[in-house]
Design brief:
This is SprT protein. This protein is of the alpha+beta class. It has 5 helices and 6 strands, in the order αβββαααββαβ.
Length: 164
Amino acid sequence: MNELMQRLEACYQQAESHFGRRFERPEVRLDLRGQKAGIAYLDRRLLRFNAGMYERHGEDFLQQTVPHEVAHLIAHALFGQRIRPHGPEWQSIMRDLFGLPAQRCHSYSVPQRRTTEYLYRCACPNPVHFTPQRHRWVIKGRRYQCTRCSQLLHFTGQAQQNLR
């Protein structure tokens, strides 16, 4: 976290020198999970980073992802909230200030995660797979009909684990 904070501070100092003004520092959290490397919450001045991706891709993460998210906050501070997230204002900060390509997405490998599917049946020969959320809704009383035969779908009592 110390290196990340140092890189963040270096980005802000570079921006302050370039634009001749001070920028408020954001709160930083390493609690993001999933497929995103980082997220900038503009109105809350909050940056969330994916700790797993930072751990696996340390140097590239510091060189690309941290400036990418800082550029969002700087663009917001300079141009207001009516700009597009990866629009020309953000792109110019990435290119002209940080000297980095204005890439919208990272290319880090994202580990597969295990998911559960719940099997439901009707009169049709093949089972219908429900997500955990949809299965919870059924438990709470929601009912679903098959789109082919129009019969109510009933849980078989079976679930299967998959990698996604």
